[in-house]
Amino acid sequence: MSTSDKYTEKSLKEQFSKFVEAKAHFNIKAGSWKSLAQKLNKPKPAPEELRLEEQISELKQRFSKLAEAKAELGIKAGSWKALVEKLNKPDPEQEIAMLKEQIAQLKAEIKRLREAGENAFDEVGFWLRDRNFDRAKFEDLGVTEEATEMKSKADAIYKDLSRRYHPDSGGSDEQMANVNRLKKQMISVVKLNGGMSL
């Protein structure tokens, strides 16, 4: 029987001639065909639940009573499960220390970028990459509102971007291809805006 099929009393009786055989086959304690089918159809516990049960079992082997475990570990809990959950809970002081370290690293990175100046990150170059170009807005690419109203302004932006991102000037083929796409888009918008072709 596949895992997607549900066990029924009828399917179990067809598969096994005796109830004892069915229980032995599945290694499940049950008092009737119906209870066996119900136990077989019960969803399996998630890995986290299994790990929790294993940890509870380990604690029960180590300590004979819950009160003994609570006293030894110095944790207040109303059950074995609550005790294990509290043991697994991260230490807030450790988390705070880790977050402070991350903040210090980020501050150092911000300082480094500020000291590096404008050359630290080429935002226009970033937007001219294929994976980003279609999501970019004109403003992201340094295109002013004037460039969408006058062809001459659009041409000037195109020439500037071409100089910066041409493969011979350190740019890439994809960036130059997207500069060309950008020019076509700007000219189309100029035409839509009824712009001047000066």
Keywords for this structure?
mainly alpha; elongated
Helix segment count? Answer: 11
Tell me the number of structural domains.
Answer: 4
Number of strands: 0
- Percent of sequence in beta strands: under 5%
Oligomer: single chain
Shape: elongated
How many angstroms does the end-to-end distance come to? 78 Å
SSE order:
HHHHHHHHHHH
Walk me through the topology.
Layout: H1 9-15, H2 19-26, H3 33-41, H4 47-62, H5 66-73, H6 80-88, H7 92-116, H8 123-127, H9 130-133, H10 151-165, H11 173-192
Helix pairs in contact: 4-6, 10-11
Description:
- By secondary structure, the chain is mostly helical.
- It has four domains: 9-41, no CATH class; 47-88, no CATH class; 91-120; 123-192, no CATH class.
- It contains eleven helices and no strands.
- It has helices at residues 9-15, 19-26, 33-41, 47-62, 66-73, 80-88, 92-116, 123-127, 130-133, 151-165, 173-192.
- The protein is elongated and about 90 Å long.
- The N and C termini lie far apart (78 Å).
- The mean pLDDT is 83.
